[in-house]
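Handover notes (outgoing to incoming on-call)

Open items:
1. Thiamine-monophosphate kinase: sequence verified, structure written out, both below. Nothing else pending on this one.
2. Nothing else urgent.
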Amino acid sequence: MTGEFELIREITADLPTGPGVVLGVGDDAAALRFAGDAVVSTDLMVENVHFKRVWSSARDIGRKAVAINVSDIESMGATPTAVVVALAVPKDTDPRWIRELSDGVREECERAGVSLVGGDMSRSATVTVCVTALGDLGDRPPVTRSGARPGDVVAVTGRLGWAGAGLAALSRGFRSPKDVVAEAQCPTVPYGEGVVANDAGATAMMDVSDGLVQDLGHIARASGVAVELDSSRLEVAEPMERVGAATGKDPVGFVLGGGEDHALVATFPSAADVPAGWRVVGAVSEGEGVTVDGEVPEFTGWDHFA
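Thiamine-monophosphate kinase structure tokens:
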């Protein structure tokens, strides 16, 4: 394997930087300038837990590592600005695989509008990627989980259920439908919509990483309210129906509990406040928990320790 420092120099050469980067890669730490309060989030991706190399290319894994972290910054209503990436791989990993992962990181950074400003590299038994993402609130307040109020509407933007359907297909040895498999390999994050929701007056917001019901449950608990979903308002795309037919699974379950979509779900004071490109799927009321069509759903979502 190529030496650690030689490889780091190679994959960080000529990195582009945004206007908020005072000092990028090359020193012990980066220096960033923010217009307002900063937000920060970290997510870990572990081989055979969050991805399998037999299912995803190194490029897919690099893209996904950035996407799922920047999604958290979007969910706070902030503008994503920068990421740092730590990578640990087995000693015998082909340097070409690491370079391909780096290409994926760069590609998704460009899509998300963030700068790669540092990171680390080490050795481990399995591939592990840890990304820390940063964002700038400017003059906006953060949108938290705890602001939903009775009378609010619930709205979503992005693709719900696609990644879950893709995972179900891959788990059965299928590589199609290609659209949902691609979402399982790397989700399509609705970049820029976090700020849009914040400016529209969103009262609470999260990214949908563990399933719509599970994540709305976090909002309901933090806000001290109940959330009522209307299944007739949920979009079940044709590829999900095909996976459901092939696997014997209810495709609505992909939407409600699939996870790893990294769409955004938010509450707004009224339907009139919901931005273009978002769709209303439910309402907030007094009480607790999440119901679908008045019933407690069987689709609960992802839990690492369940």
